Each structure stands twice: as C-alpha cells, then as structure tokens.
Amino acid sequence: MTPPSVDWRARLEALGISEGADVPASLGAQLLRSWGEPLAAEAALREHLELQPEDKDALKTLVAVLRELGRADEESTVRRHLLERRCEQLGVPAQERDAVAAYLEAAETGLGSPARSVAAYVTALFNVYAPSFDDSLRGLLAYRAPECLMEAVQEVLGPRRHLDVLDLGCGTGLAGPLLRPLARRLEGLDLSPLMIDKARERRVYDSLWVAEISADLEAGTSRYDLITAVDVLVYFGALEAVMGGVARRLAPGGVFAFTVEKGEAPGYRLQPSARYAHHLDYVRRCAHDAGLRPVVEWERSLRRQAGQPVQGHVVVLAGR
After folding, report:
1. 254 near 228, Cβ under 8 Å?
2. Model-level pTM?
3. 69-95 as b/e: b if 16+ CB within 10 A
4. Strand, coil or helix: what is 258?
5. Quick one: CA torsion of 60, 65, 69, 74, rounded to 10 degrees?
6. Which of 20, 158, 191, 194 could be bridged to 127 by S-S, CB 3.0 to 4.6 A?
C-alpha cells in the first residue's frame, strides 16, 4: 500500500516537538502512537521500513497500528509476513510453513483454536532451543514442573519401585534423574531429534526415540506402570486421543501423571504463547471418557513467563 499522505514530522511539531525534522522515523512512530496519532505513526513506520524492511519490532508495531485503524486485511498481510519469516528462522521445512504460520496466527489473534499444535513447529522450535533449553528453563523461567510432578507421583505411588516408566515428550530429560529411582526400565520419546540427543547425554534412560506422542501411543504395545507428560500437553488442545492412548498403554494399577497450564474458559484455548491452556473440568471429562480417574489434582506455579508466574494443574490419573 502507498504510505498515507500524512506529514508525521509536522504532526510531531504540532504536538510540541520543536525539532521534529531531526527525529528518527522509528522514534517518531513510537511517540505518535503513544499520543494517539495512529495515522501519523503509520507514516513514520513505513518511512523507517523503506530503509529497514525486515525490522521485526517495527513490523510488529505496524501490525498493532493497523489493528487500531481497523484495517484488518493489511494487518493480516504484515502479520503473515512476520510469521513466515519466523518459520524460516526456525528452520521449518518449506512445505510446512503455511500450516505453521496459520497456527501461529491463530495464537496471536485468538481467532480459532486448532485441536493441537503443528508437529513441524514443535520439532523446529525445540531443535533450535535444545542447546540452551535447560539453562533457559531453570534460570530465566524458574521452571519447576518436574519437581511438582514428582511430588504428586510420590504421594500416589508411596514405596512402589521397580516400575516400567514412559516419559512422553521427554525433551532434554530434565525429569529423567527424578524418575530413575522409581524405574526398573525408563524410556522416553520426543519430537525433536536434538532434544533426544541432549537426553541421551544424561545416561539415565534405558531407551530413547524420536516420535509423535499420539501415533506412538496408538502403534505401540508395551505397557507401563507410570506414564508422565511434563509440560507437554500444552502443545495439545484436544486431549481425547492422548488420554485414550495412555489408557491403553497403562499396566494394571498404572498411573498417568502430567501438567497442564490452567485455563479459565471451558475446554481448551490456544494462547498468544502458542501453548494451550486447559480447564480442569475438560481434563476430568477426557479422563473419564478414557476410563481414568483423578487421584491428585493440584494447582501450582510451574514456571514464569514475562516475569509472571504461570499457574497450572498437576494431575495424576489411575484406572477405574
């Protein structure tokens, strides 16, 4: 689109900036937007983007300005450009980028809630994060989900040991050292090959493999006394298939322990973080339909995001 015919520097001067001609376009856009001048802010942004067309922050601000102006089609075009660029940076295969961009757009806009994340997005995301994953979670995000989950598991299992254990979405294996004392055999799977490589370095798992959780639960035949999913179901909206698959793979007396982020709305909701939140009533309904019953339901702070605690549910289910 042709930039709006607004002299944004003149607007700055009219608003009291005497040297408006000397203000960089990027700064001018910030000032004008903060003063409720979206058209002038757009003009400044577009001037800046002519010189730096891939400035991510400026493009994000342009999306917000276009939203304020009610120009939804233009807003969507700029947002999709940003999301396609993100897919490219993550290393999402070219043939999967449209699907991943659509998923991320749903997360950002809140329009629609796909039944689950796109596998190619999860794989690419965690392949990128694998080298710094543990440090980021433990430091910046104050991640405590494995410890919260194990506290619940210990309460349910008591002195039981020598268990066959499956760690779904094991990632770098942060839960592995906590699960190992309970396990006769400890196995793990994850979508990301690089995360699996990191988990192997811990030397606590008996077996590790790359797989998609739902498909692996459906195809496999081994039975487990304990199945865990720590911070994993946040990449699933609908939980019916996972719950059903877990129920089929639990040995008699086995339990399923997992965490979800707390949802306030019924069912599940895709959040701007591109992770799902689940209402506890929905979790209970899926469990019931799969033939499982809750034995632990705790609310806990599982990690931090943008400096704020993320509330979640720690749940342990057993067969009825």
Report:
1. no
2. 0.89
3. eebeebbbebbbbbbbebbeebebeee
4. strand
5. -30
6. 194
